[in-house]
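re: that complex we talked abt at group meeting.

here r the seqs, copy pasted straight from the sheet so there may be weird spacing, ignore it
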Amino acid sequence: MDLLNALVAILNYIIIPATAYGAQLALGALGVTLIYGILRFSNFAHGDTMAFGTAITILVTWGLQALGISAGPLPTALLALPVGIAATAALMLATDRVVYRYYRRVRAAPVILTMVSVGVMFVMNGVTRVLIGVDEIRFADGARFVIGPQEFKAWTGLAEPLALRATQVITVVTAGLVVAWLFWFLARTRTGKSMRAFSDNEDLALLSGIDPNRVVAVTWIIAAGLATLAGTLYGLDKTFKAFNYFHLLLPIFAAAIVGGLGSPIGAIAGGFVIAYSEVAVTYAWKKVATYLIPGWEAEGLMQLLSTEYKFAVSFAILIIVLLFKPTGLFKGKAV
Amino acid sequence: MRAPVFFAIMALLIAFEGSTRGWNGALGILNMGLISAIIALGLNLQWGYAGLFNSGVVGFLALGGLAPVLVSMPPTPGAFAGGGWGILIALCIAVATIVATVWLNGRLRGTARAGAIVVTLVAGFFLYRGIFDPAVAVIEAINPSAQGNLGGLGLPTLLAWPVGALLAAGAAWVVGKTALGLRSDYLAIATLGIGEIIVAVLRNEEWLARGVLNVNGIPRPWPVPYEIDLQNSADFVARAGAMGLDPVTASTVLVKLLWTTLFASVLLALLFAAQLALKSPWGRMMRAIRDNEIAAAAMGKNVTRRHLQIFVLGAAVMGLAGAMMISLDGQMTPSGYNPLRYTFLIWVMVIVGGSGNNWGSVLGGLLIWYLWIKAEVWGPELMSLVTAQLADGVVKQHLVDSAAHMRLIVMGLVLLLVLRFSPRGLLPER
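got the structure back, here u go
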């Protein structure tokens, strides 16, 4: 019984939250890695792109709620998501046209493009704040739990509760579908193949008649979609606060680098590696230890690091990978 | 001829501010502008001389800010005897563990290496926590409402400034050692991480600098008196009266002027040194490395070592500025270290001023800081002017409320416009 309780506690406090968080990070890292692979720079504005997309989605959600439209047990935000993605994609394409295109034409060094993305980050951060303010916003509605903690206890008779929130299931299912579609798109369609060719060898791709403008535009649209999706799912799962999305930049970049910059499969693996480590290292293991070792009362919380240091976990993993395997788990590219 | 013109304009802006809105505020902007100029000089060493992308300026600044707390604050009675040694021993164990890991990594191969490293790290971590946690508990229990931290050494504040530089340089050495020599973006991400972590440490380690409880009353450096002492001094009141000033205004302006003198002398000394370095063979080598790493390496220059050297130097300047800033504020508020404000705004200063040009960084620091402060005032004024015709309501209220965030957009646009149309900045290199 104690063993079961320990397993349920691990499932409840580590596996389920970390899987949802990992899916969100993976979506974010996919966007970063695609931009890196095809446009060849580290996009510092990605966190704020996520915030912008989520802000639009929230505004539309409020509009739908005011009209009395809802998605039943699902959060209304899912209905608003296409609008959010469309708006973000439009903004990204406009930004590319006004800002980034010039630097591609003069073949600027990647670090200059990164610098430019810092400027874009400032603007998008300001726009998001003007749009929706700086307050913390909860916008999840619909059913709260798939498995409620009280029901679970009553049903199994265990002392430990198990909660599976609707937003967590939605996150994982949506992320799974989108990633499956993205891989099908990259592997099977003509546009996807031209994107991979462009990423592998730009000159050769241009020589074989691939239209670079089209590849770049599709990349921005996909990145905008991934960012909005990741941001909205993160906001549904936790809360939306414009500034928190800037701080997501570090775990997202860490995930992309750990997986290997430019490698989509690596981004997903990296997202889950970072998420599981973060949650496991900042979890207080006392409860689990008490179940597993009967008759022993742990002194402290048995928490390796306080939750405030979760960024330190991403950072430590990043440093370890940089030291031992600079190209990442799945061989990324080195520009 | 551009530089004197721009600096004259800058002086006029400050003078205009002083004569229209009072000298107290104008000198306040100038003082923080001087500190910003020093930070920008540090970043210019890294970016302008060597092309290194440091996105963790805020961390080096915060680490420098720790120095006045640890050096110039009076010691907390009993804290060091109670837990100070425990913490020092624990930190030594942490360092020893890492050194041992690096050593094992070089010595062993295969599974033996992985096993030995894991065992060392795990054992070291638990030993560290076993000594560290009780020591922290002792310190944090001492008079928690006012102290509860290690306190300082009670040494003069001016001594704390170079210590701040040393602290930042140490952190930069560790980051640079791991991330330099790899691809350029990796340094950007690694510094972003170290910046976040240093600020997180300051926010959470209450034994160190009281975390979010803030440390107040950090002493001022030698020549700067306190306003209240001046106002209580009969001699000062009489002299102010003789000049036709009331003692309160006179004391605040005098104190600010002394700060200005102090900061300006540090800035000029650093500027002088940076200019000398730039024109020396060392500076030419740095620029050669920046412009063509492969050619420089072929000439026998050790690119990674030189990068590490200049990265550490730049971070030391930032740490110095961080310590100066905390002395000026008189308090340590870790939650105030916002990366947009303390990392990316500094980038705007360097780029707008002209990367690679030390005078440009100084100009950028002063000018962008002035704009940043004034945009906070101008934004709402402009917005209320624009929305004057609008009926009162939710939309108008929202627009007026959000006007303060406009300065982020303005700074982003300034950066983008300069990068696009004048990438060499206001004062181009050479």
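couple things i noticed - Chain A has one domain: 2-324. Chain A touches chain B through 50 residues (CB under 8 Å).
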